User: Which sequence fits this backbone?
């Protein structure tokens, strides 16, 4: 397992067991964060929220432009021929 750390992603239960057996790792703070569980911050003004919704409905999103090829520049001063 130690030879291939990516193997740890495939067996999270084994990682938990290893942490439980390790004295130094078990002393670490173990706090679970769930940032997506927080309440959505609402707009302070209903008028502003309505304006934002109108902009979102009426905005036409254009695809990104194709990148233009860079001009060819000679890296040497002397002609080759």
Assistant:
């Amino acid at each position: 397992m130690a030879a291939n750390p990516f193997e740890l992603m495939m067996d999270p239960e084994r990682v938990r067991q290893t942490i439980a057996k390790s004295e130094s790792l078990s002393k670490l703070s173990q706090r679970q964060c769930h940032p997506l569980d927080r309440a959505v911050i609402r707009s302070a003004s209903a008028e502003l929220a309505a304006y934002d919704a109108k902009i979102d409905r009426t905005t036409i999103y254009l695809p990104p432009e194709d990148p233009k090829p860079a001009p060819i520049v000679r890296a040497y001063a002397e002609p080759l021929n």
